[in-house]
Each structure stands twice: as C-alpha cells, then as structure tokens.
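=== RUN LOG ===
request id: a7f3
mode: sequence -> structure
chains: 1
length: 296
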Amino acid sequence: MKQLAIIGPTASGKSDLALKIAEKHNAYILSIDSLSIYKEINIASAKPSHEELLHVKHFGINEITPDESFSVEIFIDIYKNAKKIAEDTGKNLVIVGGSTFYLKSLLQGLSEIPKISEEVKVEVDKMLLHIGDCHALLHNIDSEYMKNIDSNDRYRIEKMLLIYKASGLSPTKWFASHPPKPVIENLDIYNIDVSREILRERIDKRSKKMVQMGIIDEVASLEHKYTREPNSMKSIGILEVLEYLDGYVSKEKMLENISMHTAQLAKRQQTFNRTQFKDVISAPLEELEMIISSKF
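=== RESULT ===
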C-alpha cells in the first residue's frame, strides 16, 4: 500500500485533486479537516458532495456529531482504521486537508498512556460527575498543561485524570518520561502552491456558493439542535452566520466577514505548512496531478 498527503490552504483545490488521484490510483481518501469530521455540518465545512463520498470511500468525514469532542487521539485512531481497511482491500491512501496539525501529529506520534485498571476507570467515572472539580484538581496538579484545556472538555479531562490516577504522575511528568513515537515513518507530502490573488478569488466564490447553498438555514438548524456551546459552533462560517442571525450585521457584511476570516485562516495555514514540514514538493494545482501520478 502506498500513501501520500496533499496539503494547501483552504479553497486551494485539495479535495478535487485528491478525488482525481484516488480515482486514478485505486485509493481511499482520509480527510484532515477539523470541520468535515462532524456530521450535519455540510455547507459550512465545504465537504465533498454526497455523490463524491459515495464514489470514493472517505475516512475522517461525518465521523462524530457536532456536540462531541474531537482530538488528535481520535484522529490517529481514524487514520489507523483507514490504513488497515486500505491494506485489507488492496487500496492506496490519499491524506488530504487543511488542518495539517493532525498530519503533523501522525509524523510526530503520541505518547503511550499507562495501563488503566477497572478500578481506576470506575473511580474516574464517578469523579467526572463533577467535571468542574476534576478540572480544578488537574489544574492544581499541573497548571501549565491544563491551561489550554477547557473546563468543559470532558474527553481531555477524562484522559488526564486516567493518566494521573493510573500512574501517580502529572500529565507533564508522564509525557516527559514517555516521549511520542511516529505513527508514520515516511510520507510524501505535496503542497498546492497558489498565489494570494487567486486564492482570495477562490475564497470569495466559495463563500458566495455557501450562501446560495443555504448555510444560513444550516447554521440555524445546528444552533437549534446543539446550541452554541460545542466547539464546532465556533468555527469560521458558523460564527459569522450567527452574528447575522442575531441582527448584528447585514447579509452582505456576513458574507464579507466569512471571506475575510477564511482568507486569514488560509494565510495561517500557509505559514504553518511552510514552517512545520520538511522535504515537501510544492507546485501549482495544475501541475501537481502529473507530479503525484509519476510517483505511483
């Protein structure tokens, strides 16, 4: 089985390229997109269409509901499952998306966690009935590590509690003594090189298309079902629509804000990709398909 990654800023054409490569080279697709992972968030995430998802098997899309927590650990489990299924069915694997922090996690790996006894699991389950107290306890034990974990992030709080109760060590001390191991040793990474002007034009078109497709109704439905509390409801595209629904901005200003914030995200993605990955092959979109095909 061969595997590769296609990266680039949002709206650069990654998904379309991945579909072409997957069709041509007998591959499945693993999405690394922090919003497409959620069911029901379809327009705001600009995820592939229903027909495209049926045409080529995708992993990392529609995996969890908008009120569930997503993490690096969950993503790595999804990757391992995708890889196994690809190997078992004689397929290759194309990893694609803009949330390349998750790609970096595959290359760097995660620390192992201690063996968790049934007694510890039962104890932690009881403690989690008062999640605020759990967060406070962990913060007192390891304030540096916990400063980036929200007091309502049940998934990560539970994991840190399990580590602490099973090992007797703070998360920082545990991870320092158990350094991560890479999940992927070698991976060819291809980056879409696109000018700022072309990218801004593509972002503006995508934003207008989202409105035409019904992003306002989608966000209203999501808010009604899940409230505004989940992290997924704080994403670009959703926040701007909520501002419009609250009457703070006009529809035109909402569209302008979506485009502006998406362009800012794209700039951050380009900086991250440029500084965090080595030996990346970069080329314009129209050239990358030929370059990638020559490697298969």
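=== NOTES ===
Strands lie at 3-7, 27-31, 58-59, 92-96, 188-192, 281-283.
The chain has a mean pLDDT of 95.
=== END ===
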